[in-house]
Amino acid sequence: MATLTLAAVEEVIADSRRESSVGNFPGALLTLRALDGASSSAYLVRKEVCRLRIILGDHKSITLTPSATLPIDQQESETYNDLLCIQLHLSRISGGGDIAQSLQSAKSLFQRYEKDVTSEELESTVLLILYYSLEVHYFWKLYGDGIPDPKIAYDGTFLQQLALHLTREGFYFETLELLEHFVKDSEPQIEALASSLLAEDNLAGTACLIRLAVIRGRNGDTDGVEELLNLLDQLLSDDHKIARIQCELISKRFLETSLNQSERTEQLLQLSETLSDLGDYNTALQALEYAAEVESTLLASGQTREHAVRIHASLQQVCERSGDHLSQTLFQFRNCDVINSVTGDLSVALNEREKLLSAPLCSKLPYFQRFHRRQWAEYFMLHQRESALRHANLYLEYCRNYRGAEEQSVAENMRTQTELQPARMSEDAREASLEEIRMRLQQGIEADKRNEWYISQVEKQLLLVEVLEGLGRIQEEEPEEIAQTAIKILDDAIFTCEKIKWESENIYLKFEIMFLRGAASDLSQSSITMDEGSQALSVRTNTNAYSLPSPPVSFKKTQCFQELMLAIRNESLPAFQRVFDYVWLYMDRPDIHEDSLRRAEFLNFKGMLYYLLMKYESPTIRQFWNIAGFNSFVKGSKMALECFEEAFNITDKVGKDITELNKSADTMTKLVSGQAYLTNAIELLIFEIALELSFGLDDKSRTWDWIQRSKARGLSNLLRSSLEPEDLQKGPDYLSLSKSLTFEDLQFIQTASARKLVFVDWISFGACDPKLLCFSFSMGRDETGPIGAREMIEIDIPMQDLKEAARRITDARMDSPDASDYLHPFMPLIEPLANSSEPGDILILSPTAPLHAVPLHAIILGSNQLLIERNPVVYVPSHSALLSCLQRLSAPEPGAERPDNWIASVFGAYDDNGRDPHTVEERREIYHSLENLAIDLGTTPVLGTNLTKTSFNQLSQQVNLLHFHGHGISDPDIPERNSLALGAPNETINVSDIAALNLHGSHVTLIACSGAVQDFSLSGDEPLGLFSSFLLGGASSAIGALWPIQSSTGRLFTRVFYEYFLRHLDRTELGPIVNLAMAVQHTVLEIKRRQGFETPYHWAPFVLYGAWFSGRKTGTW
Fold first, then answer.
1. Which residues have CB under 8 Å from 1022's CB, separation 6+?
2. In whole angstroms, how far apart are CA 79 and each of 43, 65, 168, 430?
3. Which of 402, 407, 336 minimizes the C-alpha distance to 369?
4. What CA–CA distance (Å, rounded) separates 133 from 155?
5. CA 336 to CA 341: how far, in whole Å?
6. pLDDT by residue (tens digit) across 770-822?
7. How far apart are CA 576 and CA 561, in angstroms?
8. ∠ at Cα 980 (974, 985), nearest 5°?
C-alpha cells in the first residue's frame, strides 16, 4: 500500500482507540489493519496491536506479531524496545508461567521510568511500560510463591497520577484495570471517572459503567446493577456490539435469576462462543466463568453435568486459541472437581491432579504445589494413609520453602493428623508413636502460643486430646482421668478460639471443641465403659463408615463434623456428598425423632452446617449448597434459623421439665443451675449465629425474637415458672417456656401505661468482629388496629472499646470534674433513641454486657440534654422478665378504685456497734429519717439490732412497699454471697434468703452501697445479685445504686423520692398508681440541682429495675 504520513497513521490509531474506548477491542484491532504494510511509523502500529492483543487475551498472537522498523530517534527507539520487552514478558506469564524472569524485567523498567509519572505530559509508550510493569507485579502477587519480592514500590499518589495519565491518553481499559487491581476500594473512583467522562459526552464512560456493574453484582447489589444496565441501554447504540454483549453477560449472571438456570447457562455458553469467534478471549473466558457460577447453583443432574463438561471444554478451547496456558492449567485443576461431580469417583480426580502436579508449568511455578493440600485432604478422607502422608509431607515442604512459619505450623498439623490414622503396627510401636507425637504436639502448642498462631494452636490441642485418649486406652487409664485432662485442654482451646479473627475457622473450631468437650464431660461424670468412652472421645477412626446402604446404626457427631468440614475447606464435593447423605439418613431414623434431646442436637448440627457452608462461599462451595438443599444466602439462612428455632423450642421444654423435677430445691439454686444449663457454650454460640442470620436477612421480627430468647433466659424462665395462678392479676395466660415475647404480650404491657412505652434492647453478637445492635420497639395504631414500630440499628463501636470504657466507670471518677468524659464513649449507644422515641415516652432499657453497670440515663442525647432529662427510664434484665413483673400487679384501669389495704415495711441498720462520733451522728440521721418515712407510710420502722433475719422475713410478707437503708455486702468472686447487713451482730440476709421471700408484687427501695450492682460474668446477660433476687422473691420493681454512695446522698434520695411518691398526683394515669419511672426521674433531677450534688456520682447511680409503676398508698388517690 502507499506510504502513509505520520498524521494519517495517528488518525487511524485515534479511530482505533475510539473503538476500544467503548469496549470494541476486536473492532479496534480491525481498524488497525488499514495500516498493514505501512512502513512509516510501523512501530506505532505494532505498539497498538500488541496493546489490543493483551487486552483481548490473545497471547499466542503477540509472539507472532511481526517486528517493525525502529524509530530514528535513539531515545524513542530504546523506549519502544522497552515496551516491546515488557509486553512480551507479560504475555509469557500467561503463555508459560515465566514470572521470575518477567518480574526482574518489570522491576528494572519500573525503576527506570517511575519518576516520569510526575511530568505534566507523559509519552504513551512510557505510560504503558509503567502499567505493564505493575501488571507483572500483580501476577506475582497472585502466583509468585517462592519468587522473592521484587520490591516494586508505589503509593496511592503514584497510582492516582498514573491513572490520570492513562485516562488522558485514552487508555481507559488500563485505567480501570489499574484501579481494580491496586486500589483497595475502587468503586467510588470508577464511579467518579464514569461521571466525568459522560459529562464530556465521552462514551468511554460506558466502559466504566460496565466495570462498575460487575463490581456491584459481585457485592450483591442487584438494584445497583439494574440501574446501571438501564443507563447503559440508553447510552449504547446497536453499533456497540461488544459492549451490549457485556451488558447481556452481566444481566444473565446477576439479574435474570427468575429464568431457568439451565437456560442461562446455555445462553452464556453461546455468548462465549460468539466472543471467542470475534477474538475477544478475555471476555469469552468471563462469560464461561459466569456460566460456571450459574451452573454451580444448580442441583446435580444429568443436564448440569453435561453443562459442566461443556464449560470446561470451552475453557480449554479458548485457552488453546489464545495461548493462555496459565489459565488453562488453573482450569484443569478445577476440572478435577468437575470429574468428581460427573463420576462421583475421587480416585479419577486424584489421578488427574497427580499428573498436573508433575507437569512442566506446575514444576516451574511453586504456586501450584499448594494443590498438594487438596490431594492430602482427599486421600485422607479416603483413609489412604500412605498417599495422604506423602502429600502432607510435600505440602509441608512447600510451606517451608515458600510460605510463612505459621502456615508451616498448620501443615505440620496435617501431617500429624495423618499419622494418627490407623496403621498396621504392634501395640508397643503404636504407643511409642503416640508418645513421640504427644511430645511434638506439646512443644508445638507452646511455640504457637509464643507466636500467637491461634488456629494452629487450637488444631494441635484437638490432636493432643486424641493422642492422650489413645495413650490412655493402651495404658489402661481410667476413662474419668482421661476426660478430666481432655477438658482442661479443651477449655484452654475454647478460650484461644476467641482470638481467631477468621470467622469461619473460629466458628468451626469452636463447634468441634464443644462436641469433644461434651463427650469428655459425659465421660468424667458417668460410669460409661471404656469402649463407649473411646467412641465418645476418639474422633478419627478407620472404616468405610459412610458407605452403608441401609440407615446407619451409629453416629459419631464429632467425626462426621470433622469429615464434613474437611470436605468443605478443601472443596471436595464427592466426599461431602458421601458424609452428608450418611448423616441425613441417620437423622431420619424414627428413634431420633422420638428422642427430644437427640433431635435438638441434630437440628443444631444441621443449622450449624448450613451456616458454615455459607461462610465458605465460593463457586465450588455453591454446589455443596445444592446438596444441602438451598441455592442462596437467603434460603440457607432461613433453613438454618428454622433448625435453630425448632431446637430451641425442644431444649426450652426440657429445661422446664428439669425445673419441674427440681421443685424441692430453693429458688436461688434453681436460678444458678438453670443459668448454667441455658448458657452452655453451644447454646450461646447458636444464639450469636441466629442473631447474625436474622440481622443479615433484615428480618426485624426474627431478630426481636432471638434477642428475647437470648437475654437473661435463666432468670426470665424462672420468673415465669415461679408465678402461681393467684399471682396472675390480669393479662395473658401462663406462657410456655418455648415461646418468646409476643406482639400480644407487648400490647398487654402497653395497656398498663397512659404514656407510650419504648422497649429498647442492646445485644452483641459475632464470633470474630462482634457487632452491637440497638433494637427498639413501640406500639402504635393505624386504621387496621394495633401496630408495632421496630427500629434496628448497628452501633459502629468496637465492643472491646466499650468494655474498656465501662471498666473506667467508677464512683471516684463519677465525682470528678471530668466525669462526663468517661460517659462520652457511650453516646452513640443512645443516639438511635432520638428517632425511635419522643420526649416524655417511658424508655424500658435492656442493656447487654458490658453495659449493665453503665448509667445510660446519665448520657447526653442530642443537643446537650441528658437522657433522664428527656425521658423517664426503667431498666430490665429482659422484656420477658418485665412481663412477669407486671403479671404480679393489678393493671391500672380508668376509674379503678383505690386499694383498701396497703402495707409498707421500713428497715434500717447502720453500724450499731460503731462508737466513733461520725458513725454515731450518721446513724442518728439515718434512723431519724427512717422514722419520719415510716410515719408517712403508716408503719413502724424496724431499726438497728431489732432488724434480724426473722423480723425481716416476717415483716416482708404481703407488703406493698419495702424500704431498706443500710450496708450492702458484695462478693465479686462468689455473687451468691451478696447480701444486706442486718442489725444483729454478723447477721445478714443473702440473695438466697431474699429469693425465698413472699413479696407478691412489692416495690423495693434499697439505699445500700451498690445495691443495684449485679454479676453478669456468666454469658447470656444472666444477672445474679440483690435486684434479681428480689424479683425472684416476688417483687415487681426495685430501686438501687450502681456504685457505693454517701449516706447523705441516700437520705436525700429517700426524702425527695417519697415526697413525690406520696404527694404527687397525676390524674392522666390510668388508675391509683405511682409512676415510679417519673418519680425516679424527678428525684434524680432534683438531686442534680442541689448545690454540692452536681456530679454524676450523686444523682446518676440510682436506677429503677422492673415495672415502672406500683400501687398507691391508701388515701392518696
1. 675, 678, 679, 712, 713, 714, 715, 1016
2. 11, 18, 20, 68
3. 402
4. 15
5. 9
6. 889 999 999 887 777 778 888 999 998 888 899 999 999 999 999 999 999 99
7. 10
8. 105
